[in-house]
Structure formats: structure tokens, C-alpha cells
Specification:
By secondary structure, the chain is of the alpha+beta class. Helix content is 54%, strand content 13%. The chain has a 3-stranded antiparallel β-sheet with strand order 1-3-2. Strand 2 and strand 3 (80-85) form a beta hairpin. The radius of gyration is 15 Å and the shape is globular.
């Protein structure tokens, strides 16, 4: 069952949160991080910085921004912290943005 939300149902706080998430996503390195975390993947900062061939501090910085804006969540297991997409519906947002940005 799909719930249809109309513009009139959105409040300013919800829109601000969504805008913050979209601003956080709108960075080439953060998009690259998200592609590695799609499909339910859970990765450590080490796995991310090695796969993207960037400094660990850079990966940590961008992961922190994504987590702060509610895009990612993390879970500590022993010495490792695993990062993953906080919302399964994030894929829908990315699909929507890509469809809306195609010029006709």
C-alpha cells in the first residue's frame, strides 16, 4: 500500500530535514560512498577509504556529514563501526532526483 503525501501535508521542519539530506548527498565523494552502501551493504570506514582510494580522515569526514544529516546510521561491533543506509527508501529519492533532472 502506497501512501500519497501532498504538498499541503508537508511541514517546514520536514522540508528542512529533507533539504539537509539532499545537500549532504550532493557531493561526488558522498555519492560514491552511497553507491558502496547500496543493496544493504554495511562497511567500515577502512573498507570505504580503501575502496575509494581516499584518505581515512576524508572518508570519516564525509561519513560524519552523512550520518549527521540522517542519511546513514552506524553500528559498533567490537573494534569496528559499520555504516549503512538509514532509510531503505533513499533509493527512491535518488531515482526521483535522477528522473527529475533529465532534460526533455
Amino acid at each position: 500500500m502506497t501512501v500519497e503525501i501532498k504538498v499541503k501535508d508537508l511541514d517546514i521542519e520536514m522540508l528542512e530535514r529533507a533539504a539537509g539530506m539532499l545537500r549532504a548527498i550532493a557531493h561526488p565523494l558522498r555519492i560514491a560512498i552511497l553507491t558502496h552502501l547500496e543493496e544493504g551493504n554495511r562497511l567500515t570506514v577502512t573498507e570505504i577509504h580503501q575502496s575509494l582510494q581516499i584518505e581515512q580522515s576524508t572518508a570519516s569526514h564525509h561519513l560524519g556529514i552523512l550520518k549527521d544529516k540522517g542519511v546513514l546510521a552506524s553500528q559498533r561491533e567490537g573494534k569496528n563501526t559499520y555504516y549503512y543506509l538509514k532509510h531503505d527508501s533513499l533509493r527512491n529519492i535518488i531515482d526521483c532526483v535522477s528522473k527529475c533532472s533529465i532534460s526533455h
